[in-house]
Amino acid sequence: MLFDHKSAWENEKIYNEIYQNSIKDPEAFWNCHLKDFYWKKKPISSFDKNSSEWSLNGISNVSYNCVDRHAINSPDKPALIWYGDEKGERRQISYNELKNMVIKIASLLKSEKIKNNDVVAIYMPMIPEAIAAMLACSRIGALHLVVFAGFSPEALAYRLESSKAKILLTVTSSRRGGKKIEILNNANCAVSKMTQPCKTLNLDNLQNLEVKINEEIYWQDNQDNLFILYTSGSSGNPKGIVHSALPYMLYTATTLKIILGINSDDIYFSTSDIGWITGHSYITYAPLFHGLTVVIFEGTPTYPEADRYWEIIENEKVSIFYSAPTAIRSLQMFDDALVKKHDLSSLKTLGSVGEPINKSAWEWYFNVVGNKQCPIMDTWWQTETGGIILAPLRNLEQKPCIAGKPFFGNIVKITDDYGNIITSSNSLGNLIINSNWPGKCRSTTYKSEKINFAPNKAFITGDGAIYDNNFDIKIIGRLDDVINISGHRLGTAEFECAINKVHSVKESAVVAVEDSIKGQTAFAYVVIEDIVNHEKIISEILKSTKRCIGPIAKPDFIVFVPDLPKTRSGKIIRHLLRDIANNHNYNEKDLSSVYNQEIVPILYKASQEPFFCPDICKLKR
Ligand code: WT7
Description:
single chain, alpha/beta, 7-stranded mixed beta sheet, 17 helices, 30 strands, 29% helix, disordered C terminus, binds 5'-O-[(S)-butoxy(hydroxy)phosphoryl]adenosine
């Protein structure tokens, strides 16, 4: 099955034909993309029928594919172009230079006795060294664990401890929005809280490190994993998602190639951070695998002015720009002249990921940023899926806000709450994936929350979706207890755990409310023990969420209530609180499961006038 990777995702007829073939014979589809790799030993097939798992039974190395082979073929081609927080700060790193950085960090790790399968944590800002650190781990077969630099020492310590990380790679500081962030201090503080040993290594002065040439590469086979990344679930602590090395690389590289329709000379700019899955799949691995030039940005889009993205696109002649609805909405508030003063004619394709994109942001992105010339690739996926699962076709006949079609080989369905498949358009249901794909995560380190593979292999995503009239998929958002604040995925349970630590808080329930910029924000219902000073408790709650999770996790609204709505067995009924907080009317039916119904009108009244917490969130993505 040979096909032109460009037309496969442009033309509906061609898409349909390839899609039908791909679900009849997914193995044939994936086999035809194995040729994009350098193989030390070629795989015979991509799928193991016995285990129903993707099984690339060849031998290769992810980092070799992303760096070394390009350093041989095009050593001087820029691999990374970094922009700093202040205007004019720019570094360019060729594939050959990137290879040297990777080798230096790899030998440093080796000298610390790190071997394959050990966990190495990375707590660093968006700098080339951070990407080189990820690649150094995969070069020697160690699993990296990247922790977003905006997470608090406590959140970092939890991740280090539960993943048994041996080393923590970091730098002294970062600058964002004109402010200095003391990364090393936070890292040291996290390590000091730990019960097991973890050594901090500072990568500030990589240029002073000798390359003690240790060219040794760990050759990965199908069993090997690439990384762990923590994300929030609907209950309990964040869970560590483990991704495979070779099947994951195949999935992310192929989705980037086909869905975004890349050329080898593309200049690729994704505004995410390596702390999130997008920064793994579509900043680091897939674009470098294809030898693209990748632009990274350490600062914030609005500092010193709200034209940083547009300025970078113009300077570097960026052709693919992949961002998030929350960033687009925040830039849309500024004068269009800030966009128009830059020549953005190099742009070919625009991407969006992380949360549902609303119509007005979609239209602004399409009309003003893309000048009606660029398709908007609204890509839906998750940390668990490794790579893009749904995206619209890459042409200009676009329907706003529709994530669209499943990637080849994937069967995506919508079910009702009893698991029955919905076949009609315009009815809301649960989005499930009814197939196996090579990018699927392998396991989670948080054992009590198993990745949700039902016996029939359906993967339950937690998102709500509907079919439009054309049977393209529109994502509505999470239906479970996960909140998506500015694209940051946080569990209500994590908020509640932080709030309940405050002395005199008896219990709490946190729900998501709609927000015009952040998409969603957290609304906290708090039950306190005695009559106490509300302002004081609010400040303690904000301190606690900042300490336990980080500045990104701030409840914007807090109300004090005498009790929470509960079932007869004492379970908090969050969906009712969600409706009340969003000012939606509740009806009698909603109340049938509420044991303490008398509380409902009190909750309703209190929700009309919540305390609004001043914005202390400085680390927006
Ligand atoms: C959740 C996954 C995928 C990389 C970044 C987020 C939401 C993601 C879309 C989209 C509507 C989206 C979903 C999903 N989401 N992309 N295009 N349209 N919602 O990864 O942190 O694992 O979060 O983000 O709710 O479940 P994540």
